[in-house]
UniProtKB/TrEMBL annotation:
PANTHER family: 2-IMINOBUTANOATE/2-IMINOPROPANOATE DEAMINASE RIDA, PROTEIN HMF1-RELATED. NCBIfam families: Rid family detoxifying hydrolase. Belongs to the RutC family. This is Reactive intermediate/imine deaminase. Signal peptide: none annotated. It holds the Pfam family Ribonuc_L-PSP. It comes from Flavobacterium ammonificans.
Length: 126
């Protein structure tokens, strides 16, 4: 059985998917990009502000499922330019306790939705 997770505090899906799906005690988030949920506008002033918006969107989705970043066991980061890795990693890392941070991979890709620079998805367990 699956439960669809939705919150207005994160961007509405822009295609045939949901913000997250909870099955049993495991939450699978869809990839989040830097859309401000209040305005619907992309936040791409800098890679730092873009990454922060992505993480805030993920935080809202986790909270809608009664979870926090402490529940995250796996993250996947897609970036359009590996030269942005250090800046992205710095913002991303601020949301986790380094001793209990999740497993993760970071992959450079040829393109992302709406031509953004970063997209992150997560798996979390209650």
């Amino acid at each position: 059985m699956k439960t669809i997770i939705f919150t207005e505090k994160a961007p509405a899906p822009i295609g045939p998917y949901n913000q997250a799906v909870l099955t049993g005690n495991t939450l699978y988030t869809s990839g989040q990009i830097a859309i401000n949920p209040s305005t619907g506008e992309l936040v791409t002033d800098s890679i730092e502000t873009e990454t922060k918006q992505v993480m805030e969107n993920l935080k809202a989705v986790l909270e809608a499922a009664n979870m926090t970043f402490e529940n995250v066991i796996k993250s996947t980061i897609f970036i359009s330019d590996m030269n942005d890795f250090t800046a992205i990693n710095s913002i991303y890392g601020a949301y986790f306790n380094e001793k209990s941070a999740p497993a993760r991979e970071t992959v450079q890709v040829a393109g992302l939705p709406k031509n953004v620079n970063v997209e992150i998805s997560m798996i979390a367990v209650q």
